[in-house]
Amino acid sequence: MPKEITSKYEDINFIPSEEDIRNLSLIENFLNEEEIPYEKDGSICGLYRINDVKGNAIELRYINSYHFPMDNSKRFGESCKGVQWDYFYNISRYNSDHNIRVIWIFDFEMSQTNDTTSLWQGERGYHRQWEVIKNTIRTACGRIRHRFRGGDFIVKEVGNKELRKFLDTNCFYGYRSANINLGLYLKKDKHGYKKGDLIMVLTFGYNFYGNKKRPDDPFIEIIRASTRIGCQVIGGMSKLLKYFCINYPTLTIGSGKNKHEIKVRELKFYCDASHNDGRGMSHSALAFRFDGWDYGFMNRYTDDVDEDGLHGVKGEIFHRKPHFHKTIMRLIGEGRIISIANAGTSVFSMTRDELLERFSNN
Questions:
Q1: pTM for this one?
Q2: What is the pLDDT of residues 157-186, one digit of tens each?
Q3: Long-range contacts of 78-85 (CB under 8 A, 24+ apart)
Q4: What angle do CA 122, 125, 128 make, to 5 degrees?
Q5: 225 touches 237 (CB < 8 A)
Q6: CB atoms within 10 A of CB 5
């Protein structure tokens, strides 16, 4: 059985709704199907303790987001009371400092569905985020189904049509456009997949937010890193990064009169700290520099909204919408929108020259 862990922040608790009970059953059924031993906490609803393939502790923490909105009581009064903006961040940081990984599972992540038809599964209503979370747990616990090595693949650019369908099936946050999309394609049939099948992608583009203070020497962001569900590619990220650094000393950004070339000098990677263990970025052969943690949050409609050009349906998640800031803040005060904190992101960086030097020594 997993080791018992006592965390400093153990006061998350709530009375589960019928939806919560269904979600908790899904989590437990998944762990049982994968034969992953777990310990269900006796007092904290939604907390499960498991161990990774090396025996290190992992906490799976299911959260009903309606019970834990971000606190806005100073601005709007007691009706907008909630948890502090750094609540989940502090839990993850504390546990990370004690070599405990936390994988958060929010209710809206389990209920999320795709509107697009997947390239391979041909189905609508696909629960992409829950499927990716399950695959993350499988990978951590050594239950992944198909392992490949970088040498099994060739690197090619991925067209946007194929990329969209791949990311909307296999990437937690789905499709996002980028300047360069690179993929690993099988050289020959293996593990039931066919020669030419796309198994892993890495996409690159202009780092919009991080470059506001350095427009003349911009970062390049690794925008999406995704592997097909059920698969793991050992050395896959190294292979894709090496190809990018060698073949793309510059990137073309913008369009029309604003189209221009920028040099690729430094890469940034933002790791989703709510679900992924970013320590592998700095402890692996790639050894990216750890730049620190960034906070994060999102918003959720608690009611159908159609006001001042802002449209949303109850339960829908959305991120920043600067044009509607005043409307959003008013609706938060009315209780029709809640802000939801998360564990943020862990940020890593490395220069192109440093990566090329490491690749030349291997």
A1: 0.90
A2: 999 999 999 999 999 999 999 999 999 999
A3: 79/335, 80/332, 80/333, 80/335, 82/338, 83/341, 84/341, 85/295, 85/297, 85/341
A4: 85
A5: yes
A6: 17
